[in-house]
Design a protein that fits this description.
The chain has a five-stranded mixed sheet. A two-stranded antiparallel ribbon has the order 1-2. It is an alpha/beta fold. The chain has helices at 25-34, 83-94, 99-113, 120-128, 152-165; strands at residues 7-9, 15-17, 43-51, 57-64, 69-74, 141-147, 169-173. Helices cover 34% and strands 23% of the residues.
Length: 177
């Protein structure tokens, strides 16, 4: 079960700060793409709007220091229950990616984003201080649903998949103030 805390402006009298609703998912994606540490400061962003072989787009694709792929599915407001199936569908595609395909995804992203480091090996070394060859690239996978709130069914599905089957799917709350 999620625990939510308010944000307060402190002073002579505490004042609750209410979140704003984002106008578009594109804005949310742009902000996170500019600095992935908004979600997790231990990730390296390697792709944005990554086309799967099923003609669907993964919002963001990242790597952690162990070489695990992280699929990030963004929702600007409350999640629809289908978002869990969407993340699992993307995972079924991503789990089959070979190292060279992951490197190609990064190279395309680096080119489009104008990044200085054009190779995944270099980006991984710069970000984590270790060589990509020292990790099991895509040896595991995580799915992360990012939203302002979870609907009850999405929360139940994530909890069930985690608790009963150890499926690596989680939610991160993203609110703008």
């Amino acid at each position: 079960m999620a625990i939510e805390h308010s944000i307060w402006k402190v002073g002579a009298r505490p004042e609750r700060i209410n979140p704003l609703q984002l106008e578009s998912e594109d804005f949310q994606e742009e902000q996170i793409a500019q600095d992935i540490s908004i979600l997790n400061d231990s990730w390296l962003l390697i792709g944005r709007q990554v086309l799967t072989s099923y003609n669907k787009y993964i919002d963001l694709l990242a790597l952690d220091a162990s070489g695990s792929l992280i699929i990030v599915e963004l929702k600007r407001h409350k999640t629809p229950r289908e978002v869990s199936a969407q993340a699992i569908d993307y995972a079924s595609w991503a789990t089959e990616l070979e190292s060279n395909q992951i490197a190609e995804i990064y190279e395309q992203f680096a080119d489009k984003a104008g990044l200085a480091e054009k190779s995944l090996d270099g980006a991984f070394l710069n970000r984590f201080g270790s060589y990509l060859s020292s990790v099991d690239l895509n040896g595991s996978l995580q799915m992360v649903i990012v939203a302002a709130a979870l609907d009850a069914s999405t929360e139940r599905i994530i909890t069930y998949l985690n608790d009963k089957f150890d499926v690596p799917i989680n939610a991160v709350f993203f609110k703008v103030f």
